[in-house]
Structure formats: C-alpha cells, structure tokens
Design brief:
single chain, about 65% helix, CHP02301, TIGR02301 family protein
Amino acid sequence: MLMPSALRLPTKILASLLAGWLAVGVPAVAIAAGSGKGSSGKPAAPATPAPPPPPPAEPPPPAYEKSLLRLSEILGALHFLGGICKVDEPVSWRDRMQALLDGEKPQAAERARLISSFNYGFETYNAVYRTCTPSAERAMELYLAEGQKLSTELRSRYAQ
C-alpha cells in the first residue's frame, strides 16, 4: 500500500505548481501547449499589439477656398502698398486679414495656406516698391476693386 501514497505526492506537487503558475499569471494555454512551445518545439511568438489607427484625415477645403486665398493675397498686397503710400485706413489690412481668420476658423493646414497667400501678396510688392509711385497707387485701386468684388461674391454666395 505504499504505492498509492507515493503516487499522491507527485500529484500534490503538480497541483501546487499549477496553482502557483496560475497565480503569477502564466497563461493556461501556454501550460497546456507544453510550457510555451508550439507544435514545432519552438517558443510561441508573443502576441503583437494592433497598429495604432491612422490619424484622422483633414476635411476637404471649402468650395470657396480659391477665392479666400486670392482675397488673402490682395489683403497682403494692400497692407504693403498702403504702408508706402501712407493711406490712412481706420483698420489696417493686416487686421482685416486677422478678422478673416477669426471668422473663418480654418483648420491648421488651411490657415497656413491663407497666411502664406497674405505674405505672398505683401512680399511681391515689397520686392519691387520702395516708395509710392503712380503704378503703386494704380495697383491699390485695382486690388481694392477686386477685393470688394471677391468679398461681395463670398458674402452673397456662402454667408450663413
């Protein structure tokens, strides 16, 4: 009768080892699969986490973006030309550009494009004119007319 108690000892040891493994978080699947080895005898590969989701796509630009970019360029040109021709404006053209940005509340990429257009209009005339000339005054007249036309079209077509 010595035999049955000898068989019970390994069973108790195995049961306590199994309980210990489960307590420390060894997955039951790994134990059942032969201590983490697959059917080929190699260690099982760790599970790879799912890749992060792609960043959200930026919404498409508004239908009137081309007109807004042109208006921004005009505002930049008028800001420069108004400075050299000493035009006394109650609100500067730069402030009007800021009001456009504040009212539009564009996404970061669209905001950057609008600011770039304003700067392009400013720098285009900054590279050529140092003083107010008749052609600078004429350019201002043309830009004022075009800017007024664009503003009116944008307001009548897209204002809410």
